[in-house]
Amino acid sequence: MNVLEVEIKQAGYTEKKEAINNINFSIKRGEMAGLIGPNGAGKSTIIKAILGLLPEIAGKVQFVGQNRNFAYIPEQPVLYEELTLWEHLELAAAVYGIERNIFLDKGEKLLNIFRLQEVKHHFPATFSKGMQQKVMIVIGLIIEPEIYIIDEPFVGLDPRAIMEFLRFLNEERIRGAGILISTHQLDIAERICDTIILIADGQLVAQGKLDEIRRECHLPGASLFDCFNFILEKQS
Questions:
Q1: Which tens digit of pLDDT belongs to each residue from 8-17?
Q2: I need a surface site. Which of 5, 39, 46, 102 has the fewest CB within 10 A?
Q3: pTM assigned to the model
């Protein structure tokens, strides 16, 4: 069963209406898909299109799960200066109607795991980029949505935080959540993603399981990095 269906003929900004073209893919329950591409390829534009943030779009994006709810974890954390870390979590719990006892238990657990317990009553606006990213991750995990949309989540995270985050994403996948993750960390994407969506010059140039992409590239046993370079060189 799909939880997200994307069919974009073209989309972009007022000054560039066709930043992306012919982007078609879907995310199933329990599937983790890696959105891969070089800088400027259109990955962030695709995410904005999915979130309904583009002024120009022809096509459709549908959240088709039972509850049609999602969590967005951006590359640049978006936080309220006047709210403490704990108040951010309480706000998310209130918006999504999470029961108080469930929220308290999971909130405390996540803060301990991501080593944020000591600053729970501090203002995240004063945190480092890595700590702010952890706050966004914790908020997303508390929500337990049907689909996660994640943009470059590993920037600024220390190795332990990356390990814990990946562990939680795997648990969420087992729970049945769909996950779309945009990242430049090809080694991580190769290890954790069920499918790969490769974008170049605003277009979808390859998608499928890594073995399928290897066959398309005629590179049996190649790494995602090697396939990535092969496809980009072929496009140029």
A1: 999 998 877 7
A2: 39
A3: 0.92
